[in-house]
Design goal:
Elements: H1 7-11, H2 19-32, H3 42-58, H4 61-70, H5 85-92, H6 107-112, E1 125-131, H7 133-138, E2 140-151, E3 167-168, E4 177-182, E5 185-190, E6 199-200, E7 213-224, E8 233-236, E9 252-258, E10 264-267, E11 270-277, H8 279-284, E12 286-292, E13 295-301, E14 310-313, E15 329-335, H9 343-358, H10 362-375
């Protein structure tokens, strides 16, 4: 499955864009890939649905905050999945209202107007971070080292040799795109010579060979909040690669992988541990020490506890990522039957077995009665 694109990148807006700007940007992208404008174009259809999902998340403050913090994993179960154009029109039909003029522009201006060169932002980067269950419980900070493109210190990102400057592209006149007219319609495409920047470097910088950037090793400190889970992505804004020609940086995405614990199993915010106890402890009841992520803790085993019983230790689990309290630790008791007995143990158990036949337990008694009903 192809990796999802960044929602801000899809709509072409910065991360601090306000609601009206996001709405205008969505309308522009949606009109570009509108089914009436692209009949039978499956690729345009996917872009249309992609833009709708991006707008659905970024126009909702709560979903947008989760997305900003955890990326796509933070809204995976909360974003709407659009299966058809009708779903999108039903949800966002009002976005396409309004005529020409104003901030958003009319439909013909959106289809055929605009222009001007543009500079792409830097690429996003992705790293894998492994953490322990103990770090999930308390949160942690990680130091990571990555190699990324940094702005060239010699030309300061321009790509041009010091003392020279990029010049306006003669092919597109600095607009970054070329226009080809076909009757009433005007077809726009990115300029092949300047690749949409509107400028051409005639004398490249010797240090970066005209790229404006060079790979460098960089150290980054990442704060991981309590309660994260495997598969979640943390977004570190502005820690991706430097953009071309000094434009904005991309982001760094840290995908979380929680290391398997030798004792505990995770059940959402709860923890499960299996603890073996002796027959006498289960029958008579006892107080035992149980491991927790914070150290040892005492647990009371009630008399008559059966093998497989789960006992709860409240608040000993993992914190909820959204701040809704802390999970519990569940202790599954397993009664261990000894495989080798000392002479004294064997003697005492034989005495117990003799008494047990005289005082049959309720479950065993019920079972024996059912057997008699069937076979006698």
């Amino acid at each position: 499955m192809a990796e999802k694109r960044d929602f801000y990148e899809i709509l072409g807006v910065p991360k601090n864009a306000e609601g009206d700007a996001i709405k205008r940007a969505y309308r522009k992208v949606a009109l570009k890939y509108h089914p009436d404008k692209n009949p039978g174009n499956s690729e345009a259809e996917e872009h249309f649905k992609e833009a709708a999902e991006a707008f659905e998340v970024l126009s909702d403050q709560q979903k947008r905050e989760r997305y900003d913090r955890f990326g796509h994993a933070g809204v995976g179960g909360n974003s709407r999945q659009f299966g058809s154009f009708e779903d999108i029109f039903s949800a966002f039909g009002d976005v396409f209202g309004g005529g020409g003029g104003g901030g958003g522009g009319g439909i013909f201006e959106q289809f055929f107007g605009g222009g001007g060169g543009r500079t792409r932002r830097g690429a996003h980067l992705k790293v894998d971070l492994e953490i322990t269950l103990e770090e999930v419980r308390g949160g942690t900070k990680k130091r990571i080292e990555i190699t990324r493109n940094e702005t060239c210190g010699t030309c300061r990102g321009s790509g041009a040799k010091p003392g020279t400057s990029p010049v306006r592209c003669a092919a597109c006149g600095g607009r970054g795109e070329t226009v080809r007219s076909q009757g009433f319609f005007a077809m726009r495409s990115t300029c092949n010579r300047c690749h949409g920047t509107g400028e051409v470097i005639e004398t490249p910088c010797d240090n970066c060979r005209g790229q404006g950037r060079k790979p460098e090793r960089h150290e980054i400190h990442v704060t991981i909040p309590p309660g994260v889970a495997t598969g979640m992505q943390l977004r570190v804004s502005g820690e991706g690669e430097a953009g071309p020609r000094g434009s904005a940086r991309g982001d760094l995405f840290c995908e979380i992988h929680v290391r398997r614990h030798p004792l505990f199993q995770r059940e959402t915010d709860d923890l499960l541990i299996e603890v073996p106890i002796g027959f006498a402890q289960a029958a008579l009841g006892s107080d035992i020490e149980v491991p927790t992520l914070d150290g040892r803790a005492e647990l009371k085993i009630p008399a008559g506890t059966q093998s497989g019983t789960r006992l709860r230790m409240r608040g000993r689990g993992l914190p909820n990522l959204d701040g809704y309290g802390t999970g519990d630790q569940h202790v599954r008791v397993v009664i261990e039957v000894p495989t080798k007995l000392a002479d004294e143990q064997e003697e005492l158990l034989r005495k117990y077995a003799s008494l047990e036949e005289q005082h049959v337990g309720a479950k065993r008694k019920s079972f024996l009665e059912k057997v008699r009903e069937i076979f006698e």
